[in-house]
Amino acid sequence: MTRLALAALLVGYLPGALAFRLPFADRGHRAALAAEERVFWHVVLSVAWSLALALALAAAGRYTFDRVLIGNAALSLLLLAGGRRRLGYAGTAARVSWTALLPVAIVALGFWRFPPPSEYIIGGKDPGSYISEGVQFARTGALVIPDRVAAAVPAAERALFFPPPLNEAFYSNRFMGFFLLDPAAGSVVGQFPHLYPASIAFGYDAAGVRGALLAVVVWAVFGLVAVYFTGVRLVGRPAAFAAVVLLAVHLVEIWFARYPNSEVVMQALVFAGLLAFARAHQDGDRFFGAAAGVLIALLIFLKIDGLLAILALAIASATGWLVDRRPPRPAFVLTLAIGGALGWWYLSGPLRPYFFLPLVYLNHLPRGPMFAAIAAMGLVALALVFLRERFAPRVRAVLPAVFAAVLVLLAGYAVFFRQPGGRLAPADAYALKTFVNVYLFWPGFLLAIAGIVLVARRDFWRDPGLLFVFAAFSVFLFYKIKIVPEHFWMSRRFLPVILPGALLFAAAAAIGRPAPGWLRGWRLARTVAGAAILAGLGWQYVAAAAPLVPHREYEGMTRTIERLASRFGDRDLVLVEGRDAGSDTHVLGLPLAYVYGRDVLVLFSPRPDKDQLAAFLEDAFRRYGRVVFVGGGGTDLLSRRIGATPITDGRVQVKEYAVAFWESYPQGVRRKDFDYSVYELELDRPRTGDFVLDVGYQDDLHVVRFHAKEPTEGRFIRWTGPQSFISVPGLTGREKTVQFVMHDGGRPPQAEPARVQVFFNDTPLGVIDVGKGFGTYSLALPPDAVQRAAGEDNPAVLRLLSTVWVPSRLLGGSDTRELGVMIDKVEIH
User: Fold this and answer.
1) Residue 493, Cα to own-chain centre: how many angstroms?
2) pTM of the entire structure?
3) In CATH, which of 2.60.120.260, 1.10.357.10, 2.40.160.10, 2.115.10.20 is domain 689-829?
4) I need a labelling partner for 445 at 20 to 30 A (CA). Which of 30, 58, 163, 306 fits?
5) Pairing between strand 715-728 and 796-802?
6) Separation of CA 152 from chain center
7) Nearest to 61 by CA among 182, 146, 157, 184
8) Which of 35, 447, 40 is nearest to 235 (CA)?
């Protein structure tokens, strides 16, 4: 516990506190800030330095948490020595007042509202990839992961696990969310920039997997505080506090405060960077120029969307210089330029697979209009430079009104008039309307519009950075959301800037900025009425978030994967079924490998080449003591040479919140099942006896394109799909009949009758009309086809073509599976 407290002090407070107190660059300005804001900057600067140091160490392949602690301790000693007993404010600092209780209350609210984090450590989507990337950051100490298991796969058998190269940016996928750069060297890089994973590494080094999961909660609380202090400067303390309370109880903030993602990190860094930018450029504090440059440059190492914030601040800087005669701070320009150069090396080098698609997008932009727009902006800027004395005062007076009017007109068009058509999809056309109806609500939207007009008219030149950044994110993302349009996935787009910005504007319109006589007469009445409206809006937010508060996404999954990992030793190779096998078992492969350190390969196809697989197993048995397979959907990998012995089964049920496309809202918590079996693979072990397959129980190596296992009437069964396959290895050539135990599944009357057409390899055996209840159905096997199959190494295949029905179409609900018939058993005699 002592080490944990020391680590928190060194990573999150001490270096920034000492740097903030250094007697240079207008320390008197910093001392005059409220005591609580000074503490905020101590934390911000320390965290930014610690993350930058971690990234620098990882770029050299030398990261460890201890090295960060040593580096921070050394920097603190250096700052102490450089300060030479002049680190005190000598009585010039603003004293602690009651206002310090407000950020303390915000922190308490966040830590009460947000934990516990989800247990999203499985692969398949961004959250699990972030957690695995952060753990690998801690374990390997490098940006590029040295993966010895991938490197050990012989070149002739790589296609079993790694699909062919798709483009020049990388060779293949190692796991979903991880790119294999060089198969011979086994170099792998995560899909996402490393800033958030670096903080996950801090949590993992401090408290294991649970510490890694908790990192997102800490960032979310940090984001609340950053929004508050930025809001205090822009709209005043009461409005800022009210806006942050609304944000803390909002379902989007609660959901993503528990769900590993980089958007909450962006929220914290963007608003801290905006406050530093305003302190430097509008308040004239030289110290904050470098701070703003560092914070904004870190966005390059967080998320590609950060480039939008950088562009907006560049426009704000140019506008301030041309119109308001406020040149950019040299320290801001220098640190941002250095960060940009390092970012270009990073994005075009180690992270080139991530940056590949944005580059393709930029390369396909129409060059003529793009260059024309750039030239037009350049001409306007040049005109302002040469005609500044004449036109700058007029532009300064008119620009705030024009800015507000454009945003209001665009918002009105997007909400009331915008319609899909041509290349404009409905989800994009109605993006702002969806945000208003589902997340912000109409009172909040109307207040936000009024607040934009009010703040732009009154304070445009006091804080142009925030206004330009808010406008850039709003216009860019409401034009096209550029993400799968489903709840809550699409709401990530609104989280970093749009939602907190809209709430700040709404609170500004409702409460206003404190001024002399603020709580007297009609102003008091206006404040009370505005506070009542905000309270009502907050109550709506609390009610909307109520189903989410007790829910913990994938609760128990950490313990489940820990138990599964404990079944495998250091000399075991674990093969996991592929993504296309018909179940979600493949998502267990990523945490088994990159969180719990097991040797794992994921098959690419549910029907791998048997000769290649046998050759791979021959090599693997020389390297490993045991090769096991984990599957749940169905993978055809058995042959005359390749056999398997069942070891164990697992059935996991976890809670998962429903998803819904943009037209409707998710309907609460549902259950997600993971059914898997574990087999030990063998080579050249003879098998005897008839073929008897209990479908739904340890059948994963025989079935392909079936639905997941499920229990019914005391049996375990699987539903067929439109076309399903059963692999039959080890035939002798004397087999005569095949028997199926099947059930029509209780089809509704409006569904097509249950009928299954059966093929043995390419030979048709007949058509079975399946009735209600489980019954046995037999078909004769052609002797010549059986003898041909017995002479081959690859197994025979029973192909089943079923008439299907979709429950959601005929009965309603969310079950969109194409269901054929239930199969309980298959026997060949």
Assistant:
1) 11
2) 0.91
3) 2.60.120.260
4) 306
5) antiparallel
6) 30
7) 146
8) 447
- Give how far Cα 553 sits from Cα of 495, 564, 616, 657, 672, Å: 19, 20, 38, 7, 10
Task: Give me the pLDDT at residue 792, please.
Answer: 85
Helices (H), 417-546: 426-429, 431-434, 442-459, 464-479, 498-511, 521-545
Q: Tell me if 331 sits within 8 A of 284, measured CB to CB.
A: no
The overall average pLDDT reported for the chain is: 90
> pLDDT tens digit string along 278-292?
999 888 889 999 999
Going by C-beta distance under 8 Å and a sequence separation of 6 or more, which residues neighbour residue 374? Answer: none
Task: Give one DSSP letter per residue of 648-696, joined into a string.
Answer: EEEEEEEEEE--EETTS---SEEEEEEEEEEEEEEES----S-EEEETT
DSSP annotation string for 530-550? HHHHHHHHHHHHHHHHTTTTT
- 827, β-bridge pairs: 692, 739
Round to whole Å and give the CA distance between 659 and 401. Answer: 41
Domain ranges of the chain: 554-685, 689-829
For residue range 763-780, list pLDDT tens digits in order: 999 999 999 999 999 999
DSSP-derived 3-state class of residue 766? strand
Burial zone of 211 (CB within 10 Å; 0-12 exposed, 13-18 middle, 19+ buried): middle
Average pLDDT over residues 488-504: 95
Q: Which segment of 253-262, 429-438, 638-647 scores lowest on mean pLDDT?
A: 638-647
C-alpha 522/C-alpha 307 separation (Å) is 44
By C-alpha distance, which of 750, 767, 751 is closest to 801?
767
Confidence tier at 340 by pLDDT (50, 70, 90): very high
588-605 average pLDDT score = 95
